[in-house]
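@channel sequence for tomorrow's demo:
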Amino acid sequence: LVEMVIAMALTAILMAAVMVTFSSVSGIIRDMKGDVNLNVTTDTVTQFIFDRMATSTNFSITSDNLAADGTIDPTKSKDSINNLLAERKEPAIEDLYGLVVVDGKLYDLGVIDDYDDYVDKIGNLKKYRLFNDAFYGEANFRYTFSVEAPSGSSSSDKWYRIGVIPFDDNGEAIISGRTEMFKLINLQYSKFTPHVDDVFYTTIGGETQTTPVASGIVILYRIKDYTKVTSAPSLTPTPAAP
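structure tokens (generated this afternoon):
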């Protein structure tokens, strides 16, 4: 009987040790899974924005677009929309697009024909949401913006940086030793400021700005669609008038 009691006690001790080890390993795996999910989310969001803006000819970014009821106030982007549309050199092949961020969630408005079209899409914003709540998880995503110039560079050689950072419910940035959570998009500044007007339609510049989660960010950008070109340009110079 004593031997049985001793054997049972040793077995219980071993089982407890195994359970503690298994619990620790499970916690590590669970944390790593959370890190991977967050990493995928931040990578996907930043890559989506970059893919849309990488070939832009000009853009506008504003961060304070929320009305009192928490919806996007379209009037705050009216001037930018009208200016970006009016200054196009080739309107037939250059379209204006829009991205919106509300409560950290991303919406893609697609092509914006005019200000009235923008107002209509803002009024039906749910139709343009890109990812569901499960994709974002429990993190609260904030966006950062800054304009930076490399050391020794000219005034036109600047980079516009867009970052996406996940925060917890306490407002603390979620940073892991295994993954880099601050994803950056580097867009060459001069690429988006054509010499025709040298206008950069954005209220965000200078030092790095991190927007709160409860913010309304509007990104407007122009892209030339060369599939709309109906004829090739002539390679023969036009003879000078006599």
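heads up for whoever presents: The first helix runs from residue 2 to 53.
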